[in-house]
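Practice problem: predict the structure.
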Amino acid sequence: MSIIACPQCGTKNRVDERAGAAQPVCGKCGAKLPAAGASDGHPTTVTDANFEQFIAAPHPVLVDFWATWCPPCRAIAPVLEQLSAEAGGRYAIGKLDVDQNQQTAAKFQIEGIPTLLIFKSGQLVDRLVGAHPKQAIAQRLQAQL
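Answer:
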């Protein structure tokens, strides 16, 4: 069973992965839910509003705290795209723009960007500050599997 937040209303829904091809829908509003662990190969956009639901996943979750004006943030973006495409449901990757989501950035005392936070079952387990090579990020994620 996975818990998936509805993209429309934010309600948490239990979804059984064994349901196969059946399209899961929100129990409250009826909106279609994304497949469990699916990120369509791209990092998920994370905001102050959906942050808690995103990190509550039972698998490791990496959140990239970034900004559009930050050259090192733009430099590691392709690395995060690759890692997201390779995730295969083992972990999830999200991106949170610190300029548009200052509440969450302040909560985790983000003072330099890019900052990569890794969560497991909603708990912060690792922090990387600055641009790191793909292998270093992958090793940190692998350590949480």
